[in-house]
Write a structure and sequence with these properties.
The chain is an alpha+beta fold. Helix content is 61%, strand content 15%. It is built from 14 helices and twelve strands. It is rod-shaped, with a radius of gyration of 65 Å. Bound molecules: adenosine-5'-diphosphate. The site of adenosine-5'-diphosphate has 22 residues, from helix 12 and helix 14. Adenosine-5'-diphosphate (ADP) binds next to helix 12 and helix 14.
Length: 570
């Protein structure tokens, strides 16, 4: 039976009991009222009639007068219509006959007295009959009342018991399964899916239990299949991470360490058990490396590992889920070998360029001598060839010079001679240096200064070198008979900005971020064949070594603007 029907039946039953109880009470009250009305009505009235007649009989002992006869007559007639008890009819008839005799009698005082006495006897008899009846009916009424009290009492007690049991049990009947269900749901929220409800009933709770049990079974099944595959994936990823030569540390969004591989453990100097699950900043308090990893944003790190100074490049990857950062992975790549190779390369380049400089200079010297008429006359073709050799040696010298500069920067051997100088000095030197090239291409260099420029703190040679480089490039990539604008003005804060703008071919936007990289040349440009791709990289190093900034803006087909800043003298 469903709970709805059970409730209906329960309340219906209670209602029925209450109905029966009140019905019985009404029935017995009616009976009691009937009994008592009987007592009052019939027997009591008879007694009253008899008493009325008795009063008249006792008034005198003579003949009856008219009033007395009237009174007796009316009361006797009423009595004759109110016969209720056995023997009452007989006594009333006898009373009637004695009265009739008394009515007719006269002049016989003795007979009058005896008749009156007989009448009194019947009066008393009738009265007694009715009084006995009253007494009897009283007993009956009492019995009815007692029965009613008993029956109503029994039914009321029964009703009370039923209601009491109902009140005690019913809330539990509804609430207990709900309570149990709540407990099980709490367990489920703790991922404890082995939960079963044992409601045997065929009602809604039974159905609920069945649905719940199916759900927990499915959840358990899903959890296990999921857990197994997650565990498998975890093991696989752990194996991959551990077999890597890079140090890997995973942190969650609260900076708790989720995983560290063996390389990371050996670098940090702590076993995995002491790291996993710990709050990384806590461990960083006592561990320099971890502190540097968390705080330091430098990408290249020198760490003592494998019994030697090793170089690591640090990379921090953010782990995101639904546009929210849920953790990060720190990767330390061991780049010691690359570093050593790079150093070897730089040293090699430095040595070679240095070694090449002397023979190239002597070639230049010899060329100068050959061009001198005192050594001997050369014909036009030979002069042409000598010119070509001169051009190439100049380029060779420039290239070796750039390579040497770059090697200097890379080995950190860049020596800067800082001094305070007016921006105009730098501009004058540079413009003078590129004047000839510009004239050859009929490119005009227009120079403009902001008024009252402050002096800048700079290495005059290196800065001039940078400006020459920018101007040479601007001329190189300008169309013939165009112009190059050199503007010097105040920049942000304490900066002075030098900018070189050409109206040449420009640079495609996708190459701009790489333009200051070493050996980078824009693919397809004419410099690809001639240049080294080092000029801008060295310029960047020179400017940044002087705490300045260098950058570029360009518009493909419209020209480029290269600009750098220097600090003014404090
Ligand atoms: P290179 O010695 O090859 O000129 P740079 O470092 O000076 O090397 O320049 C790198 C590359 O940047 C060049 O190959 C060229 O493609 C591009 N570039 C430099 N300046 C300009 C410019 N003013 N206009 C267009 N391209 C330029």
């Amino acid at each position: 039976m469903t709970i709805k029907n059970k409730l209906r039946a329960g309340f219906g039953f209670l209602f029925l009991l209450a109905f029966v109880c009140s019905g019985l009470s009404i029935y017995y009250l009616n009976r009691l009222s009937d009994d008592s009305s009987l007592i009052l009505k019939d027997n009591h009235e008879t007694i009253v009639y008899m008493r009325n007649i008795g009063v008249v009989i006792d008034e005198n002992s003579g003949e009856l007068n008219t009033t007395q006869i009237k009174t007796i007559e009316s009361n006797l007639v009423k009595q004759e219509h109110n016969i209720t008890e056995p023997g009452e009819q007989q006594a009333t008839d006898s009373l009637r006959s004695k009265y009739e005799q008394l009515k007719l009698l006269n002049n016989s005082p003795a007979r009058l007295i005896s008749l009156r006495a007989e009448i009194r006897k019947f009066l008393y008899k009738i009265m007694k009959l009715n009084m006995d009846a009253e007494e009897h009916k009283n007993v009956v009424a009492k019995a009815t009342a007692a029965n009613a009290t008993l029956l109503v009492g029994i039914i009321a007690s029964f009703l009370f018991l039923v209601a009491f049991t109902f009140i005690i049990n019913f809330p539990g009947y509804v609430a207990d399964p709900i309570k149990e269900l709540t407990e099980r749901i709490k367990e489920i929220s703790n991922r404890n899916y082995h939960q079963q409800l044992d409601f045997k009933s065929n009602d809604e709770f039974g159905e609920l239990a069945q649905a719940f049990n199916t759900m927990t079974f499915k959840l358990d099944e899903y959890e296990h299949s999921n857990l197994a595959s997650i565990m498998f994936e975890k093991k696989r990823i752990e194996t991959i991470i551990n077999s890597m030569h890079d140090a890997i540390i995973g942190l969650d969004e609260r900076s708790l360490i989720i995983f560290v591989n063996e390389v990371a453990c050996s670098l940090i100097g702590l076993p995995a058990e002491k790291l996993t699950g710990k709050y990384a900043p806590d461990i960083a308090l006592e561990n320099d490396l971890l502190r540097n990893l968390l705080v330091n944003d430098q990408h290249k790190m020198k760490i003592f590992a494998d019994n030697r100074e090793s170089y690591f490049s640090k990379e921090i990857l953010s782990v995101t889920s639904e546009d929210r950062i849920i953790g990060k992975v720190i990767i330390l790549k061991n780049i010691t070998e690359f570093q050593q190779l790079d150093e070897a390369k730089t040293n090699f380049i430095a040595t070679i360029s240095h070694e090449l400089k002397t023979p190239i200079s002597s070639i230049k010297m010899s060329l100068k001598l050959l061009e001198d008429d005192r050594i001997g006359q050369v014909n036009t073709e030979q002069r042409q060839l000598l010119g070509n050799i001169d051009d190439d040696t100049r380029r060779l010298l420039q290239i070796t010079g750039e390579l040497l500069d770059m090697a200097q920067v890379e080995t950190g051997k860049l020596n800067l001679n800082f001094g305070s100088t007016h921006p105009q000095n730098i501009v004058d030197y540079a413009v003078k240096a590129v004047k000839f090239t510009a004239e050859q291409k009929q490119v005009t260099i227009s120079v403009s200064y902001e008024e009252n420029l402050p002096e800048v703190r700079a290495d005059l040679d290196k800065t001039t070198w940078v400006l020459i480089n920018l101007l040479s490039n601007a001329i190189k990539y300008s169309h013939e008979r165009s112009s190059v604008d050199l503007v010097v003005k105040r920049g942000k804060g304490s900066d002075v900005e030098f900018s070189v703008t050409d109206h040449g071919q420009g640079i495609e936007a996708k190459y701009l971020p790489r333009i200051f990289e070493r050996y980078f040349k824009v693919p397809g440009s004419k410099a690809e064949q001639t240049g080294t791709g080092l000029g801008l990289a060295i310029a960047k190093d020179f400017i940044e070594a002087q705490s300045g900034k260098i950058n570029v803006e360009s518009d493909l087909g419209g020209g480029s603007r290269f600009y750098f800043t220097l600090k003014k003298v404090a």
